[in-house]
UniProtKB/TrEMBL annotation:
<protein>
    <submittedName>
        <fullName>Cation:proton antiporter</fullName>
    </submittedName>
</protein>
<feature type="transmembrane region" description="Helical">
    <location>
        <begin position="303"/>
        <end position="323"/>
    </location>
</feature>
<feature type="transmembrane region" description="Helical">
    <location>
        <begin position="367"/>
        <end position="387"/>
    </location>
</feature>
<dbReference type="InterPro" id="IPR006153">
    <property type="entry name" value="Cation/H_exchanger_TM"/>
</dbReference>
<feature type="transmembrane region" description="Helical">
    <location>
        <begin position="121"/>
        <end position="141"/>
    </location>
</feature>
<feature type="transmembrane region" description="Helical">
    <location>
        <begin position="183"/>
        <end position="209"/>
    </location>
</feature>
<dbReference type="InterPro" id="IPR038770">
    <property type="entry name" value="Na+/solute_symporter_sf"/>
</dbReference>
<keyword id="KW-0406">Ion transport</keyword>
<feature type="transmembrane region" description="Helical">
    <location>
        <begin position="221"/>
        <end position="239"/>
    </location>
</feature>
<keyword id="KW-0812">Transmembrane</keyword>
<feature type="transmembrane region" description="Helical">
    <location>
        <begin position="6"/>
        <end position="25"/>
    </location>
</feature>
<keyword id="KW-1003">Cell membrane</keyword>
<feature type="transmembrane region" description="Helical">
    <location>
        <begin position="335"/>
        <end position="355"/>
    </location>
</feature>
<feature type="transmembrane region" description="Helical">
    <location>
        <begin position="275"/>
        <end position="297"/>
    </location>
</feature>
<feature type="transmembrane region" description="Helical">
    <location>
        <begin position="32"/>
        <end position="51"/>
    </location>
</feature>
<feature type="domain" description="RCK N-terminal">
    <location>
        <begin position="404"/>
        <end position="504"/>
    </location>
</feature>
<keyword id="KW-0472">Membrane</keyword>
Length: 620
């Protein structure tokens, strides 16, 4: 068999093994990375001998960086730092700065004292395991289904720490190879790489977003491929200017496109997600096949002890110090401490370092690669296979049927979403208007901006795990169609829509009341001629309270938003039969006191200082 046929067989077998491993992992509900590593080792020289990555020669060194750049770009494209509060964002930044330093120092000490590595090799190993990796963390979190704040921190750490860790690793390698390198040279080395990555990533992202906004002539397919070409072009430019600056460029290019909200962003993320899955499948199989199991066994118990120290001591220390003073519970901090599997960046850079050390005539390259892969295997298997059990024991999994998905980012829906969030509910919003999406994002809501509400965007927005679907655009016919689609495709526990009073479609609950249209309430809120409040329906005056509420509703002055009972909080459906003890959250149209119904004018004046001046009638 000639070399070209062997390489073709290698590529085909790698793709087949990678994709089938992904499919099998999905069926068995296991982390895909576990089966990818197993298949690579099984098919490689240490197993059946069917895969020989060495046939690619220098091609492996070319393939790995391009695929890693694609994976990190996709991670940056999905990363939305505006979705959460400053407390969580602060914890995230501490993890990728202070946490990286703690991991670097802790891993170096562990590998030197427990692994018996020389200091130079110990520091190199420590620099390689700073990273966690979105290639492992992302699929793992999707399978486990943890709380939103934990997913935000872990996904953000995985995306942002990869380029930072790669830069630190290259600097450490340069220090090892050039032992007379001073502190000033080290600082300049880091600043140059970070500066180039930031400048090209953000600058290129801004130029690309401007072009995409104006290039109406491009088809969706060509638009996606052009973004891929620009990504690899900017990555190459960064790498030519300064090695390992390209990874930071890739992340920031994706993040800048996300922030720019370019047209067709959802389709772009879908396309890049598919390419990223293919890249992960190929890379993990190839790198695992290239691993020598014998070299890992030679590490002995000292290598195992080094990794265990990294898992049980170094990582928890970093997490608890970086989240000190945050509102995270001890259960959430414990879960963050447990989830730090290493991924493709650690594996790929370790392979390149092994070659660099060998070419420089230094020993230890194979040992570093073996210890890094042992770290990957142990963290992936130990943490990946137990993540779901640990999340359940710590009670940090997301509730399967709570939260609300609201279609329509208008003033009324944003007001409703704020009240839901203030009471602990998860809220996700969808709209087709970029300006409306921007207004909702300014309130720090997760927003999906899409021109078409199809099955894919609903799944992406979390329809399968949210309990209520609420369509409240200004168009009642659109609301009915969207609600019907949600019922047919997802069967959520509750489906509500702002409908016309005569609309009585099967299976769709009518939200709110039909006396005043949603667009009118949007005008009231935009003009600030409203106030919100709440009232508890209780006591001997319960019937009088309900009577006054109904009167204000029929006059178009009051709109009940939420009702809170012992069994929970929910959006008020039309025709709701209220009960004694209900807490009603409402919005009231109050242009001027004299504009209220005549029967209520004196009541308004008398009860001006009370919490509920309109809803509580005067004493008999």
């Amino acid at each position: 068999m000639d070399s070209s046929t062997q390489i073709t067989a290698l590529i085909v077998l790698t793709v087949v093994a990678g994709i089938f491993s992904q499919v099998l992992a999905k069926w068995l509900r296991l982390p895909s990375i576990v089966l990818l590593l197993l298949s690579g080792i099984l098919l490689g020289p240490s197993g059946l001998g069917l895969l020989h990555p060495t046939l690619l020669g220098d091609g492996l060194e070319v393939l790995v960086p391009l695929c890693v750049a694609l994976i990190l770009f996709e991670g940056g494209l999905n990363l939305d730092l505006s979705r959460t509060n400053q407390d969580l964002t602060g914890s995230l930044w501490k993890l990728i700065t202070l946490g990286a330093v703690i991991t670097l120092v802790g891993a170096a000490l562990a590998s030197h004292w427990l692994g018996e590595f020389p200091w130079q090799i110990a520091w190199l190993y420590a620099s390689l395991v700073i990273v966690t990796g979105p290639t492992v963390v992302g699929p793992l979190l999707k399978q486990v289904g943890v709380q939103r704040k934990l997913a935000f921190i872990l996904e953000g750490e995985g995306v942002l720490i990869d380029p930072i860790g790669a830069i630190v690793a290259v600097v450490v390698l340069n220090v090892v190879l050039q032992q007379d390198m001073g502190w000033a040279a080290i600082a300049i080395n880091v600043i140059e790489r970070v500066g180039i990555g930031i400048a090209i990533g953000l600058g290129g992202g801004w130029l690309l977003s401007q072009f995409l906004r104006r290039a109406k002539f491009l088809s969706e397919e060509l638009r996606n491929l052009m973004v891929l070409a620009v990504l690899w072009g900017l990555f190459l430019l960064s790498q030519r200017l300064m090695s390992e600056s390209g990874l930071l460029t890739a992340v920031l290019l994706g993040t800048s496109l996300r922030l720019a909200e370019v047209p067709g962003e959802r389709l772009l993320r879908r396309f890049k997600g598919q390419l990223s899955t293919l890249a992960i499948s190929v890379l993990f199989v190839l790198l695992a096949a290239d691993l020598s199991v014998a070299s890992m066994l030679e590490l002995g118990w000292s290598g195992v002890a080094t990794v265990l120290c990294l898992i049980f001591l170094v990582r928890p220390l970093g997490v608890w110090l970086c989240t000190w003073g945050s509102d995270l519970t001890w259960q959430q901090k414990t879960f963050l401490s447990w989830i730090a599997p290493r991924g493709i960046v650690a594996a790929s850079v370790a392979s390149l370092f092994s070659i660099s050390l060998t070419n420089a005539g230094m020993s230890g390259g194979d040992a570093i690669k073996a210890l890094v892969f042992l770290t990957i295997l142990m963290t992936v298997f130990l943490q990946g296979l137990t993540a779901k059990v640990v999340a359940e024991q710590l009670q940090v999994r997301a509730q399967e049927t709570t939260g609300v998905l609201i279609v329509g980012c208008n003033p009324l829906s944003i007001l409703l979403a704020e009240h839901l969030r203030d009471r602990g509910e998860v809220v996700t919003m969808i709209d087709s208007n970029p300006e409306s999406c921007k207004q909702a994002r300014q309130k720090h809501f997760p927003v999906f901006c899409s021109s078409a509400l199809d099955t894919e965007i609903l799944q992406e927005a979390g329809m399968t795990r949210l309990g209520t679907f609420l369509a409240m655009t200004s168009n009642t016919e659109v609301n009915a169609i969207l609600a019907q689609r949600a019922i047919e495709e997802f069967h959520p526990p509750r489906v509500l829509a702002a409908l016309a009073s005569e609309d009585d479609r099967l299976g769709i609950g009518r939200a709110f009341q039909a006396q005043v249209a949603v667009k009118d309430w949007n005008e009231y809120i935009s003009d600030s001629t409203f106030r919100t409040g709440e009232v508890i329906l209780e006591g001997p005056r319960y019937h009088l309270q309900v009577e006054h509420i109904r009167a204000l509703m029929h006059s178009g002055k009051l709109l009940p938003l939420l009702i809170e009972r012992t069994e929970g909080l929910r959006v008020v459906p039309a025709g709701e039969e209220w009960q004694a003890g209900d807490r009603l959250i409402y919005v009231l149209h109050t242009p001027k006191p004299h504009a209220l119904p005549a029967a209520l004018t004196s009541e308004w004046r008398i009860s001006q200082t009370q919490i509920e001046p309109v809803l509580i009638p005067p004493a008999a």
